[in-house]
Amino acid sequence: MLPVFELPASIIHWDQIGARPSGAFWQNPSDWEEFEAKILRLSGFTQHLPAVKSSRYLRADSLAVDDLRRLIDAHLEVTENKRVPVVESCALFGGAILIIDDLPVLFPQCCSTISTVYDWKVLLAPQFQEGYFCLEGHPAPKAIREQDYLNIICEDEGEEFYPPTTPIIRVEVADLAMAVEQAELQMQRLCERVDSLSAEYGAKSISRYLIQGQ
Asked: Are 214 and 208 in contact (CB under 8 A)?
């Protein structure tokens, strides 16, 4: 499981980018990889790693502090005269990519935030049997406990999952527990790095709002 950020549209200099490549990033990876690299370059990002080649998802553990600041400024719509107060903001956009056998099988959905990484821990509770999770994004997946396994249902009558995934993803609870533990360690380090910028945004701990979504 990999915590990731998704670039907000407000950070993109659309007038300089040019035409979007054809198809989706998994259908036309070479053109999309070049397109996304151009977006990052024009947006001033200097240190970053794509979570999945040619996608707009960036590994949350790869961004330099200056790049985290750029991401936060875009999220808070910072200009010379105004800024959304951190305490009134939702978390940064992103979430967790579920990876099984080195293949990404489930991505954060539309409007998902990085704070949904923490939602996966709910599925590990002994009393958990069935329920939707990562509710900030849409559509939301549903998990059903079946002894030592979780069946993650990725079907919605009104909206398709993007990128496309299999209707049911089956994962061992023990394997998911290890993945969640590693993801939470990454999130802890991320919070520490984001909090190093807290004074600039007038809050004691900006990770509370921008990462944990409290």
From this structure: yes
